[in-house]
Amino acid sequence: MNRKNTPKLRFKEFEKADPWEQRKLGDLINETRDKTTVEDEDTLLSCAIDGMFLNSELFSHFRGSSNIGYLKVKKNDLILSAQNLHLGNCNVNLRFEHGIISPAYKVYELIECDPLFIQAWVKQDKTKDFFLKASTEGASVCRKNIVWEELYKQELPVPKIDEQIKIGAFFENIDNLITLHQRKYEKLKKVKNAYLDEMFPKNGERFPKRRFPGFTDPWEQRKLSELVDYSNGTGHEDYVLPEGKYELITLKSINSEGELVSSGKYVDEEFETLKQNTLIMMLSEQAKGMLGMTTVIPCNNRYVLNQRVAALTLHDKVSSKFLTKAINNKQSYFEQMGAGTKVQNISRGHVENCLIEIPKYDEQKQIGDFFDNLDNLITLHQRELDKLKKLKAAYLDAMFVGGK
Q: What pTM was computed for the model?
């Protein structure tokens, strides 16, 4: 049997079936040019790397002056972008029964192809190279235009329709699982943000909107310098290794969710290490809303502080889990105090003078533990989501001809 056009992994009933057939893309698709003749003739759609959307789901308003002349789209049509197609802006419309889309795209009916199979094919990494081969440089080096006649002549391996259907349904199930976990993850993040808004008092107020039973005392307003001891990190760049005994805490060690992540930098020198429950704070803004972002050091003798990051050592009767959330709720303050032209920075004085509303320790601990448990649940769904995406990528590689 010709193994060249046989995928590494096939369903059992197709293990002895014929190799996949080389077919020109142009023989599998038929361009449709049915256009609108009146304004707002149908629902306006958008094709994006992540799938098909209502235009209103991606943009707050219609960005053109008229949608007359837009292309009509049916369910199971293939939509391809004329520019930068190799980046993945292509989809089979599996979501909407009909709609219209910008003429910057091309719309195709599939010829004797399973739409779910073709959707899986357009989303595998190897297909990006397929599109890139039929691309030429556009008006700028970052823009690639499709040469359509070249694209139509290119060949791809395709199985018989019954195997296509089986493969398409398999990836549809994986996509449904990914969507389910994505929705759970996004819902939990919204729940967390709602609780952060309700369980911390507004600036200058003494009572939060929502509290655990048994707590009625007003919160105190304290300067951060009354709750922690501040210390700056120093530069260790001359000692950095790709791996080592101690991980270096840098501006890349905190993500937008206030979580500790690997900086990818290590040292072996015996510099002073950070103690468990110390807070680390970003003194320079790496992204919008990240100035002053803090997180908690989870263990002793593992992390070393680098420059442009501060360590906040807690005083007695201050919960690290609570205080990191309280500080991260003060983004408006740090944005206001930030200074710099290209990159915003905050000074020690502005950090220490930040006003924090804080309850007694028992309430701090309960709030901190509540958000810690919620963060763990969010992380669990994020890991499951990442696992499913990696699993899908592995199956795409193994179940399509031409994988790595």
A: 0.82
